[in-house]
């Protein structure tokens, strides 16, 4: 499950730029240039780390993820569980990239884990332009078009049950809290199964380097997003 997107080398997980990029585009539908293998500031998608946590430790009814640093390609990562039950993703020097707090029942059922991971990642991959563009336009701000920087800060969810569900996520509310040159975007979502509510969750993003909203600049960025999407799907 998702084994094509990482390599296990002893106790460490290693993710190449090519693997991370394929996951971003092929699984998450995320065409952010920062996930291109040749990007100067390349980073592994946070949603791939999220997915590997579920693969290795299972899906719990309540989980909170906090991303503390960006992961470069080919960084040896140790996925571990502390004595208090917290999960951590750290490198060889102990630098932490992801902290996870969980509670409640946990399932290791491969079908349930994969279904939830794919469902959430597909939702999460729509950060831009689907969710962020309307928010930025509404508030009259946008990221620097020459150096767009949107950082995955945290996410969490609570599920009523784990058995026999085919999850589907839908955005229920979004907000943007502008603080000078940065803004916090909060995306809240519902989790349903066969039309029935089974949980709720939210995701927080940090948008840096804000400037005044420019509709022409934004249109060019959106056009480039769809150009990259079409090129990937054609290939």
Summarize the structure.
With 235 residues, the chain is of the alpha+beta class. The chain contains 5 helices and 12 strands.
What are the main properties of this structure?
235 residues; alpha+beta; Thiol Ester Dehydrase, Chain A; eight-stranded antiparallel sheet; two-stranded antiparallel ribbon; 39% strand; globular; DUF3581
Please specify the SSE layout and strand pairing.
Elements: E1 7-9, E2 12-14, H1 17-26, H2 46-57, E3 59-67, E4 77-81, E5 87-91, E6 96-107, H3 110-124, H4 127-139, E7 141-143, E8 149-159, E9 167-179, E10 182-193, E11 196-208, E12 210-212, H5 215-234
Antiparallel strand pairs: 1-2, 3-6, 3-8, 4-5, 5-6, 7-12, 8-11, 9-10, 10-11
Could you explain the architecture of this structure?
The chain has 235 residues and is α+β, with helices and mostly antiparallel strands. It has one domain (7-234): Thiol Ester Dehydrase, Chain A, CATH 3.10.129. It is built from five helices and twelve strands. The chain has helices at 17-26, 46-57, 110-124, 127-139, 215-234, and strands spanning 7-9, 12-14, 59-67, 77-81, 87-91, 96-107, 141-143, 149-159, 167-179, 182-193, 196-208, 210-212. Helix 2 runs antiparallel to helix 3 (110-124) and helix 4 runs antiparallel to helix 5 (215-234). Pfam families: DUF3581.
